[in-house]
Amino acid sequence: MLAPFGSVVGAVSLTIFVFDVWAWKWIIFRGWLIKRPNLHGTWKTELQSDWINPETNEGIPTIHCFMVIRQTASKLSIRLITEESRSQTVSAGVEACSDGTFEVSCTYRNKPRSAFRYRSEVHYGAMLLLAESANPLRIEGEYWTDRKTSGSVTLMDRKPKTPVTFEEAQALYKSVC
Fold first, then answer.
1. d(CA 123, CA 54)
2. How far is residue 116 from each of residues 49, 60, 82, 122, measured CA to CA in Å?
3. Cross-strand bridge partners of residue 164
4. What is the dihedral of CA 138, 139, 141, 144, to 10 degrees?
5. Any idea what DSSP says for residue 40?
6. Mean pLDDT by 10 residues, the chain (177 residues)
7. pTM confidence score
8. Where are the beta strands (DSSP E) in the chain?
9. In sequence order, what are the beta bridge partners of 111?
10. How far apart are CA 163 and CA 174, in angstroms?
11. Residue 80 · residue 96 · CB < 8 Å
């Protein structure tokens, strides 16, 4: 009587895994079964910070960096990679809004490379992004940190690969040019 139990559990587990990792992105499931935007990939990112350099008493120029988003139907991981630091998601979530847009929120820990910690210590922050569709071409939002800084974030030009380092992300965009 229990002989088919193992096969059924195996088949159901495999189906759930395939759906969670890949099938949730298929257009057939979008909108009625899955109410999440597909954000997976590497995005060219521009950060505009309100940080004032105490040595010059001036702001800093726009920071060009990369946002790497790894996503399944059940998980979301957001990593910001700059030349000086890398952040890691502490928690993240997506909420579907009544107007068809999506709010992406996350808290993160940013860890600057040791060479830059004299002016930028390890810190925590939060980010709120707005994706205007289920398959956005551009995402905009804002961030704020426990260092009392804040700013705007713009994500654009998504690539499907998800590199780990700044150099790998740079190479990903240079290889396309």
1. 18
2. 17, 15, 12, 10
3. none
4. -110
5. -
6. 80 93 91 90 97 89 96 96 94 94 97 87 96 95 95 97 95 76
7. 0.90
8. 41-49, 52-53, 58-59, 63-71, 76-81, 85-96, 102-112, 123-131, 138-145, 150-159
9. 86
10. 13
11. no
